[in-house]
């Protein structure tokens, strides 16, 4: 079999997306391709994106990253889930944790057993059957395989890009600083041939990865790929962000607190808190939003509040010609479930798997785009669920969300769950039954019936099963160290 010549990949942009792409390619393809990353210090990065989901650990494992070093360098903390406050209704909270809830049987998920229990007088909340959720509530954490505790991280976005830059440069990635002023294309094929910098330097390549952020300098401004707008389902279009000093012990979860026209977040890092207020500008003015954020934060501000505008949706093709878009240039479904960095990692893994060593083949491009579309649509549905299934009627924004037409795929899932508690699962989907059920129950969806298989247990057996499972979780949680104590001994940042 013939091996083609060594290809050159040019990565445009050095935010989280650019350096994740560089690090992954350096590790997996470093011997067979040359890579150059161009970034502009003058433009800088978006410098948000600080909450993650558990698959990041697998990605780090693939890169051979040492967890303690990574956590110290990025001031990271552990994340067991997200606390959704005032989403179902004002003054009602629930946690979407990364844990399993209860023990399922081959034919029916655990929530069917819990629903029967409710009917038979068991009053314990669904949340009491998840170890991660209870540990989060108690502010506790430990790394454990038995019982397994599933977790992700909160991290400092700027420090993370720096950390991956060091990793990539140590593995041979070339970095060029400069502002791209022109994207050159081949007249015949339409492929990108080179990037011209303000300094006059030209960077040529065989393949280009667009990580230039929302503007999509290559994929959109040069290749005019097109964008599918999802603002009719995800109407928030703005965020004010600000960093504050920490106050008290760090929580092992993100807080997402709904307000009259969106929500705000608290992301606890070791040395500071990340805060942001996401909103729909049609229902809340920018000045009001800024005031709402400033009035709600607890610690002293260490940055000025900064406005970020966005449009939810996806790039029509993540791979077009000889260019793949990653990160914000490929689309954005808002940060509610911390899915953007995850999409960068799955995007680069997919690209490496389908790497066009022998030239670009249409079927490969089509398959890449098909998988990318499916993945982002599944995440979109999960996020739309949070907005749509609510009892809130206190503002025009929530009335809009409650009554909006939702994607058919999501409507189908909600129907299945409402009618007979079926939590539909698509192969390979990121958020599993445990996530869908925690959010459905958390937002107040109560099914009309459950699977009859649960009657294979007698009432006595079911009662013992539910009671013992819950007790075991309580016993484990009692013995766990606090999140703060675990961080202090495992990955504490050096005091400055
Ligand atoms: C409000 C908000 C909150 C978010 N929260 C989360 C979260 O909690 N979790 C999560 O997973 N994701 C979150 N995200 C998404 C996350 O921030 C991004 O996915 C991530 O930071 C990747 O950004 P990026 O690298 O694509 O873009 P950027 O960080 O914008 O980087 C763009 C890069 O391109 C360079 N560039 C641009 N133009 C040029 C040019 N002409 N010449 C040279 N270089 C250029 C810039 O200098 C920069 O290096 C959030 C996003 C927003 C808007």
From TrEMBL:
InterPro entries: FAD/NAD-bd_sf (IPR036188), Flavin-dep_Halogenase_NPB (IPR050816), Flavin_halogenase (IPR006905), Trp_halogen (IPR033856). PANTHER family: FAD-BINDING PROTEIN, FLAVIN-DEPENDENT TRYPTOPHAN HALOGENASE. This is Tryptophan 7-halogenase. It comes from Paraglaciecola algarum.
């Amino acid at each position: 079999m013939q091996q083609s010549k060594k290809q050159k990949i040019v990565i445009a942009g050095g935010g989280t997306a650019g350096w994740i792409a560089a690090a992954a390619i350096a590790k997996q393809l470093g011997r067979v391709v040359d890579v150059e990353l161009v970034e502009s210090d003058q433009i800088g990065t978006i410098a948000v994106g600080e909450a993650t989901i558990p698959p990041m650990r697998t990605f780090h494992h693939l890169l051979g990253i040492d967890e303690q070093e990574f956590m110290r360098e990025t001031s990271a903390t552990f994340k067991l889930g997200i606390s959704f406050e005032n989403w179902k209704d004002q003054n009602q909270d629930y946690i979407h944790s990364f844990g399993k809830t209860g023990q399922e049987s081959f034919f029916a998920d655990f929530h069917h057993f819990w629903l029967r229990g409710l009917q038979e007088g068991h009053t314990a909340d669904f949340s009491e059957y998840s170890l991660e959720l209870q540990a989060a509530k108690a502010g506790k954490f430990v790394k454990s395989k038995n019982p397994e505790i599933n977790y992700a991280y909160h991290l400092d976005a700027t420090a993370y890009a720096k950390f991956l830059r060091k990793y990539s440069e140590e593995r041979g990635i070339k970095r060029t600083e400069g502002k791209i002023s022109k994207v050159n294309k081949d007249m015949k094929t339409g492929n990108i041939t080179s990037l011209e910098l303000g300094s006059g330097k030209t960077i040529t390549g065989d393949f280009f990865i667009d990580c230039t952020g929302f503007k999509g300098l290559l994929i959109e401004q040069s290749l005019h790929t097109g964008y599918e707008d999802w603002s009719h389902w995800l109407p928030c279009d703005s965020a004010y962000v600000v960093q504050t000093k920490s106050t008290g012990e760090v929580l092992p979860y993100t807080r997402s607190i709904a307000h009259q026209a969106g929500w705000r977040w608290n992301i606890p890092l070791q040395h500071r808190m990340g805060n942001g207020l996401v909103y729909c500008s049609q229902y809340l003015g920018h000045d009001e939003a800024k005031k709402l954020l400033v009035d709600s934060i607890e610690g002293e501000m260490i940055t000025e509040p900064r406005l970020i505008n966005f449009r939810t949706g996806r790039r029509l093709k993540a791979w077009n010609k000889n260019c793949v878009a990653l990160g914000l240039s490929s689309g954005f479904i808002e940060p509610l479930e911390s899915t953007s960095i995850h999409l960068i990692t799955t995007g680069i893994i997919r690209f490496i798997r389908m790497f066009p060593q022998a030239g670009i083949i249409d079927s490969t491009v089509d398959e890449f785009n098909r998988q990318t579309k499916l993945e982002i649509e599944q995440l979109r549905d999960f996020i739309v669920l949070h907005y749509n299934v609510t009892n809130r009627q206190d503002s025009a924004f929530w009335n809009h969300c409650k009554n909006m037409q939702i994607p058919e795929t999501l409507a189908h899932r909600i129907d299945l769950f409402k009618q007979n508690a079926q939590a539909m699962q698509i192969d390979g989907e990121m958020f599993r039954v445990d996530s869908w059920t925690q959010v459905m129950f958390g937002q107040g969806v109560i099914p009309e019936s459950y699977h009859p298989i649960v009657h294979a247990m007698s009432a006595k057996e079911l009662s013992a099963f539910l009671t013992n499972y819950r007790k075991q979780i309580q016993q484990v949680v009692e013995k766990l160290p606090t999140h703060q104590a675990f961080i202090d001994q495992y990955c504490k940042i050096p005091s400055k």
